[in-house]
Amino acid sequence: MTALALEVDGLSVSYRQGLGWRQVVEDVSFSVRRGEVLGLVGESGCGKSTVALQLLGFRHGGLRTDAGRIMLDGLNVLGQDRAGLDRMRGARVSFVPQNPTTALNPGMRVGAQIDEILAAHDRPAGDRTRALFGLVGLPDDAAFLRRFPHQLSGGQQQRVCIAMALACEPGFVVLDEPTTGLDVTTQEQIVELLIDLRARLGMSMLYVTHDLGLLSQIADRIGVMYAGHMVEIAPTERLFAAPRHPYTRGLIAALPRIDGARRSVRPLRGLLQRDMLPKGCPFAPRCDYALPRCFEEVQSLSPAGQHHEVACWRLAELPPAAAPADTDLPAAPDHRSTLPLLSVDRLTVSYGRGSRAFTALDNVSLTVEKGETVALVGESGSGKSTLARAIAGMVAPAAGHIRLVQSELAALVKARSPAERRLIQYIFQNPDASLNPRATIGRSLTRPLEFFFPEREASTAEQVTAALAEVRLDAGYASRYPDQLSGGERQRVAIARALIAQPDLLLCDEVLSALDVSVQASILELLQRLKSELGVAMLFISHDLAVVRMLADRVCVLFRGQVMELGPREQVFAPPFHPYTLSLLEAVPSPLRKRKPVRQKTMGSGEPGPGCVYAGRCAVEIPGACRAAPPPWRETPGGLAIRCHHTLEDLQRKASPLAEKGLETP
């Protein structure tokens, strides 16, 4: 039996609330063996990050540990004073944060930040710092070490954070959502790096995330938390093959799939309301199998198989979990007219001037029909958000035209008419930043009405109530402030604010990326319903291809500001693929597919030449041809267009290995 690297026993944690305390973690126990990766998953607010930070002895004035013990390689973490914690952190246990941009010091060069950690533990820097950068796949030359964080990409910043975590060779690493917000190719590279480091260094990990698909690629076991309680722990394959707790089943049912046919997701019933938790099982108010006893009787983990524990007294009575049904979603009514709603023609957008000018979009053309959803996909920096901002009039194009029906739109929104502004509404990625924290929800919804429909002032309250009902929120939300809502509720308000203007086109910019899987499922269901019932067209930006396959009618694949592939959804998700599209599809983590090595080349940072912009990254680059001349467009009879030097027949043959990963060809 492998020795334990970590043992958590009966951990309970409370946060200060007003004059009292609220318990946010209750009697949580688990262990991690040496060299093992334990995933910790659950909805936002379940307590997983609080547990993770306790492994580093994190404390502040508003937090207290009520009970429990944390033994890290024989050391009692909760019994350490500040000096003991300083010696422990970095040397025995280290931390990789969610957001490297805020974790790294913007005023220090990245090499100096590694040196600082080594100096704090009396270890020599210099060669060690360069070796760490090489270990995590970063350049180790002096010029790179002298860069500031803002001069690195998001993936490079996260690699620097990983290098910092490994600086003093700790035996245990805590990772708190380290790939949230990264595109799928960068995420895949970070996961490959962690798997490689684990194999080479033999370190143990606690990996905290809401991404179940990602955990399936890296974790040996997964612990599922709900409302501060551990409700299930199981080996990864067993958890996905035979989930036992109703909450785990709900999370897996809410997971969008890229494999096979389109299917609807099933959001969990209700919301987590900590103020209304019963004395017994915290999940009882949302459970389809709950009995009166569930509300009264506290549940604890009980054996459900080898290395499998579940906190549910009805375990033996529940029917086996059904596999997600591969049924097509209902077809939306055809709202299309003879003229497209939106036309983007040869659009070019540049940032900066002179020698520092950067072309973010290069000669992009596409259309959006009335009632149609067109998805924009591609990794960070591909130009997706720039295109949406240009359509919204937030940035001025250097060349090209944007037309709404037949009318050409002015470059900037301030020059557009109120009617044109009303017809295009933007839903931002982060509702925390886009909603005024000092205005009630009702006031935020009233502002568009005052601007676009001043003649309807008498019926404002009724329209606000109707807008909230449209996104499944009751009228009482109008009197609340944004900080009184969950993340999913705030995103619903942002959607309601856009819809109350009665637009024809919604620009949805990564509106699901920061949400956990169950909240994401409810927003996705809402968008599907709005599309079907209201005929609202959407330009849907996302790096989640599983979501795109469920929602989109057509898909546009962007790389470095250029369109690589454009066509109907099912044709984009079936061979022939553009090599870049293939790399995106292969990078999508899925519990139904085995992880395979990255096929594309390492990310390049050089300026593109006269040929294909993907040439430096392409795994099937044609020597000479791909870098010498722009690639031609290849078109299929079904309306798929691929920009590539390879013929469609060549691309069809090169896509065949993808069938091994579970993507089906219609």
Quick tags:
eight-stranded mixed beta sheet, globular, 30% helix
Write up what this structure looks like.
The protein has 666 residues and is α/β, with parallel strands linked by helices. Among the domains are: 224-317, no CATH class; 342-549, P-loop containing nucleotide triphosphate hydrolases (Rossmann fold); 574-661, no CATH class. Helix content is 30%, strand content 22%. It contains 24 helices and 24 strands. It starts with a strand and ends in a 12-residue tail after the last helix.
Q: How is the main sheet built?
A: 8 strands, mixed
Spatial sequence of strands, sheet with the most strands: 6-7-8-3-9-10-12-11
Distance between termini? 47 Å
CATH topology name of the domain at 342-549, in short, is Rossmann fold
Helical coverage, percent range:
25-40%
What is the second-level CATH architecture of the domain at 342-549? Answer: 3-Layer(aba) Sandwich
Mean pLDDT: 87
Which helices and strands appear, and what pairs or packs with what?
Elements: E1 4-17, E2 20-33, E3 37-41, H1 48-54, E4 63-72, E5 75-76, H2 82-88, E6 93-96, H3 100-103, H4 110-120, H5 127-135, H6 142-145, H7 154-166, E7 172-176, H8 184-201, E8 204-208, H9 212-218, E9 221-226, E10 229-235, H10 236-241, H11 246-253, H12 292-296, E11 302-305, E12 308-310, E13 342-351, E14 358-368, E15 373-377, H13 384-392, E16 399-404, E17 407-408, H14 418-423, E18 424-427, H15 431-434, H16 441-452, H17 460-470, H18 487-499, E19 505-509, H19 517-534, E20 537-541, H20 545-551, E21 554-559, E22 562-568, H21 569-572, H22 579-587, H23 625-628, E23 633-635, E24 641-643, H24 648-654
Parallel strand pairs: 3-8, 3-9, 6-7, 7-8, 15-20, 15-21, 18-19, 19-20
Antiparallel strand pairs: 1-2, 1-4, 4-5, 9-10, 10-12, 11-12, 13-14, 13-16, 16-17, 21-22, 22-24, 23-24
Helix pairs in contact: 5-7, 7-8, 16-17, 16-18, 18-19
